[in-house]
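Q: For a teaching session next week I want to show students how multiple molecules come together into a single three-dimensional assembly. I've collected the sequence lines for a complex. Could you give me the predicted structure tokens for the whole thing so I can convert them for display?
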Amino acid sequence: MSPVAYAKLTIDEQSLLLPQDRLLHIELASNIQANISRGNITLGFVEFDEHEWPVITLDNNLMPLTSLPEQRRLVACIDGTEQPLALACDTITTLPITAESIFEPLPEIMRHEKSPIEALLHSQGILHFLLNTDALIRLLPHRETEE
Amino acid sequence: MTASAHAWILTDLAGQRFAVANVEMVEYLTEAHIMNVPLSPDYCPAVMHWRERLLPIVFYHRLFAPGAAVSELHHIGIVAYQRHPGEPLLHLAVVLSQAPYRVVVTDEENEALPECYRDPVHSPLVRAVFSLDNAPVPVLDVNYLASSTLRESLEQQVSSPS
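A: Of course. Below is the structure for the complete assembly, covering every listed component.
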């Protein structure tokens, strides 16, 4: 059964959606602890459920950033199947899904192994992106090596 | 006996002409609200709302000149394609520099591939070539244009130029 609400994470002008049950915990960005051993796109970690959750953030083009912009005030701990992931974002709210809300798969012409966008939702004049968290996780080490 | 068929002539933002089959041209629009999609290819960076759907928008001239400038969108062609026989039609928006127009093509018209298509990445875009005003006009394989194969091939071409 499809979720009836999605967690909406904003990053600059982008609206990223996650099924509500994939958002496990929200932390303040001020609680990010530095960890120099993780590589330059991992900004540090937050502690939750007795684990360290590596924190990353993205820019408006969904490319990893190496420093945390001031407006990224919240950190979302995401239930990824491959490894823990925490994404720093500007705001976290809930987007209710109605019968008129139809997700459309990302068109084939736009698909790419590096894109964490799984589907598109155009709702109330805004284009939202449904995140594939596993793709986001797979993207990160690869991009780290490109730095 | 010589057979003939109609084709639509489309002109990209660089003034380059190409054609699609008569049945592939679905609609012509003079405005569109486009929305960027991050991490999309340079030649297809956005989607637009059309008939309760989101269509990818192709800036065709960027297939040959990545990063080329774009002007305001006043001419947009909606073209249809089909992945496999019997499957539902899919659609794509193509940004044009002028309104499309229809011509008659005969099967006797068979021109050489235009220069810019003579590489392994771009040549599959062309299903046939005919002459119009003494210039070759390629007929597009829209299915290939809309495929991830083209994007991957273009990226490989950029990363390992011959």
